[in-house]
Amino acid sequence: MKRRWNWALWVGFLVVVAGLLSYVPVFVNFPLTRDFPWVNLLMFAGGLALLGVGLARAFRNPAEYRGRIFGPALTLLAVAGIGFFCYGLLYVARDLPASAAAPRVGAKAPDFTLTDQDGKPVALADLIGTSPAGGRANGAVLIFYRGFW
User: Fold this and answer.
1) How high is the pLDDT of residue 134?
2) Do the beta carbons of residue 65 and residue 6 sit within 8 Å?
3) I need a labelling partner for 137 at 20 to 30 A (CA). Which of 11, 31, 93, 117 fits?
4) Residues 6 or more apart from 11 whose CB is under 8 A from it?
5) Helices 38-60 & 70-86, crossing angle to 10 degrees?
6) What's the rounded Cα separation, in Å, for the pair 121 and 49?
7) Would you list the domain boundaries of the chain?
8) Taking 90 as the threshold, does the pLDDT of residue 101 lie above it?
């Protein structure tokens, strides 16, 4: 009897690898998938299901399907990759240190200089010192745009 190729093992492993490698170059660009990697987690679930099917085929019917050696190795690599992904993205990335030196609400902001949309430097002291109406401004509103810089 000719042994058949156990496609579920290899496709499952490739789906898991695609889930691991696609988060940063693809899914970080969209707000829906940047905050929580639900598409990657679905890819991991599908890949692990295929790996499970492939392992079951390899060990139930080893005369027909290949994969008794590569199956556990690929599954172990996939589970380790998913574990590192989840640890890094769901725990380490959210475990930021407390910002003790950050200004509190109502505190005076330190003087700083930033560039405007035309690339010219603008200091906070310049904004507070004069107002368009000719009087003295009491405060300034800063708006930070998330974009390409």
Assistant:
1) 65
2) yes
3) 117
4) 50
5) 160
6) 55
7) 7-92
8) no
Q: Write b or e for each residue in 38-76: b if 16 or more Cβ atoms lie within 10 A of its Cβ, otherwise e.
A: ebbbebbeebbebbebbbebbeeeeeebbbeeebeebbe
Cα(124)–Cα(110) distance, rounded to whole angstroms? 8
Contact 94, 74 (CB under 8 A): no
Q: Give the type of residue at 107.
A: A
Give the whole-angstrom CA distance, residue 53 versus residue 45: 12
pTM score, whole prediction = 0.67
- Encode pLDDT of 44-91 as tens digits: 999 999 999 999 999 998 888 888 888 999 999 999 999 999 999 889
Residue 130 has a pLDDT of 64
Q: Which two tokens stand for residue 2?
A: 């000719």
Q: How far apart are CA 71 and CA 56, in angstroms?
A: 9
